[in-house]
Amino acid sequence: MSMKALPAADNSQTLDWHPRYEVVIGLEVHTHLKLNTKMFCSCAVIYGDDPNLQTCPVCLALPGALPVLNRSAVEYAVRAGLATNHEIQERSVFSRKNYFYPDLPKGYQITQDSLPICLRGHLDVDVPLNKTGKAGKKKAQPDGFYRKNIGITRIHMEEDAGKSVHAESALGSDDSHMDLNRAGVPLLEIVSEPDMRSPAEAAAYLRHLHGILCYIGITHGDMEKGQFRFDANLSLRPKGQQEFGTRTELKNMNSFRYVEMALNAEIKRQAKLLDAGEKVIQATLQYDVDRDEINVMRLKENADEYRYFPEPDLLPLIVDPSLIDKVREALPELPSAKRARFEEAYELSTHDAGLLTSSRALADFYEAATRLHGKAKAVANWILRDVLKVLKEKETDIEALSLSPEQLVELIQLVESSRITAKSAREELFPAMLTEGGKPEALMKSLGLEAVVDTSLIDGVIEEVMGENADSVEKYLNGDDKVLNFLMGKVMQKTQGKANAGAVRETLIRKIKG
């Protein structure tokens, strides 16, 4: 089946986010690469290890230690560039970015500056809308989307710094310690153009980018572990003005929800200053989530002077065109293309297809279950209603659940064949499958959840309920159809929800009208 063509981006549609000012946002994303060793040495990348165990003369910057570039990091950078529509540079250069901070052992960071590996990329991002045409409100399902083309200036490779650990000592004072396990961990920095005009566009861009990087397998993207974090540059300018306003920088965010909150708070702060005739001062900022307010970390009257110069211990990086072709051929189907295919092939709404393709593992699970079952919407309903609920509650992904596509399909078939009621399947059997594992049919029998199919037993229960609720039976005979649901509820209660609801309804009507 041919894939449905994606609609073109429509940058003519701009949200009226502020009545007097146009919002201008650019984002810098840092993502750890899913590699076993560091960028310039063979030290292992292990999260949660005891401090300073994964270090060596290279990442400790001992005299005479020389960096050696991780080849896999180059391939991952090329993969990221191709997936985000960049031009891959066959020649790029590593530089030293000089600054002094306790968690930077060398006193400089090896990065790429004027000649990065990827240039001039872009993403077409779907930004959610609600009925009023505004973005950003939290709704179970948006009323629509508009597509925004967001430019990406560059992607470059670099090493991460170490980590400052602040703890209270035995003497009661606050001490700071350095954990250098993270020093040298492979990073990509992805720098957008200042093309976003609302916090909603920024959050949509970050979600889309995060999804792509996880889909192509170059990062775990765990934001709690710092594997995907971002800085936001924001300025306001009077509507109609071409010149950018003074920008501020919000540092080290790792939550899609909080980045919207932080940007909204900074928009309000800057607008208040401009409305009062005051100037916005260039500064590095931090967002206080609990107070929903912006705090100034340090003022920046001018751009930082990092005194970049080419890294003398590394030759220029030459990427063979055959490597670029090899990586391009190995790229998987990307999220936007997969979502469009799901909409067409499985007749799903844009919203549902978006949820099912939110991770590559979930999309693969859905397709495997659909191939086994044959009815795409039946499988989608169970995943969207029940599986995603569990994933959200456990804050995990489908791979962490003890649930296979075969097990889910068997559960659905048990319901469809009336072997178990939908209520018992959802509320009792499905949770038991996740905790105990095993085949759904065997588990159903062991838990005594199999539906009551003995018509004589159902008849007896119905007659008992009718005898106990004669007034309700009379109301139904007098034309009150709503009372039938009450009587059905009583029958289901007495059978502990195991009777087939359709059979109960049919038998109840027949016996009442008798």
Overview of the molecule:
- With 514 residues, the chain is an alpha+beta fold.
- The protein folds into 3 domains: 26-304, no CATH class; 331-446, no CATH class; 455-513, Arc Repressor Mutant, subunit A (Orthogonal Bundle).
- It contains 15 helices and 16 strands.
- The strands form 4 sheets. It has a 9-stranded mixed beta sheet.
- α1 crosses α4.
- It is elongated and about 95 Å long.
Largest sheet: 9 strands, mixed
Give the low-pLDDT segments. 1-6, 131-136
Radius of gyration: 29 Å
Tally of separate domains: 3
What is the secondary structure topology, with strand pairs?
Blueprint: E1 21-32, H1 71-83, E2 87-88, E3 91-92, E4 94-98, E5 108-112, E6 118-129, E7 144-159, E8 163-168, E9 174-179, E10 186-192, H2 199-215, E11 228-238, E12 248-253, H3 256-275, E13 283-288, E14 293-299, E15 309-310, E16 317-318, H4 321-330, H5 335-345, H6 350-356, H7 360-373, H8 376-394, H9 405-416, H10 422-436, H11 440-446, H12 455-468, H13 470-477, H14 483-494, H15 501-513
Parallel strand pairs: 12-13
Antiparallel strand pairs: 1-10, 1-11, 2-6, 3-16, 4-5, 4-15, 6-7, 7-10, 8-9, 11-12, 13-14
Helix pairs in contact: 1-4, 2-3, 5-6, 7-8, 7-9, 9-10, 12-14, 12-15, 13-14, 14-15
